[in-house]
Amino acid sequence: MPRPFRLVALLALLGSSAAQVAASEHEISLGLTSGLTTRSVYRGVVRSDSAWQAAVDGDIGPWRGSFWSTRPFDSAAPGELSSALGYVRKLDDDFTVEAWGTHFWYVDQPRLGAPSHSFEADLQLTWAPQPGWRLGLLSGYDIRYRSTSLQGAIDYDLALERWGTFLQLRAYVGYVTGKDLLPDSASSRVADDYLYGGADARLPFHLSFHTSVSFEAHFTSTGNQARTWSPLGVGAGSREWFTVSIRYDY
Description:
Elements: H1 3-23, E1 28-37, E2 40-42, E3 45-48, E4 51-60, E5 63-72, E6 79-90, E7 95-107, E8 117-127, E9 133-142, E10 147-160, E11 165-178, E12 192-206, E13 211-223, E14 237-249
Antiparallel strand pairs: 1-4, 1-14, 2-3, 4-5, 5-6, 6-7, 7-8, 8-9, 9-10, 10-11, 11-12, 12-13, 13-14
């Protein structure tokens, strides 16, 4: 198993003891998630086909942190690992602003000239005008691809009182422009911009006080998207995928 994926496994094993130690000094939350997805997609771009994904995430006060990995079953696609650190500030009862940075690693990148790692800074403003409703505006910049992204989203939580859960619904639209999609290539420089949009549905069920399972359905479509964005060379088009995962919250 590649070293980055061993790191995620080690973090999962150490999570319980770390949470107990930190809880004596700070009010924190920590969760572990693992599951299967029929496709890995990022901002409309196909990163891999079916894969195993795992994450460790938590917060201490206004600070948020996470480690996330995806391991494709198809060896033609790269494995990916990301670590993120962010800060959340509530402006008032309805508005929240969040800033974070994410470092991406791409394990065994198959495309010549594509980066083995990148870093992106993001800023998001969220407005919750009514219970269950959220409107979000997200902007980001990646220093390796020299790419700028802008995304607007609307979320709604539909209560399912009969089953003791709720259905999370989301619709979004975004725009991405990149000046150098092959930053590690000495001879090629590829620039591109594209539009994307889609919708998600997530249905969680609590199995116990700490454990829950989630079923997710996703749909997205891109227009005028260059194949260079995708490690598998997948261009513009529509795709759908499904995810099932289990989560443990300490």
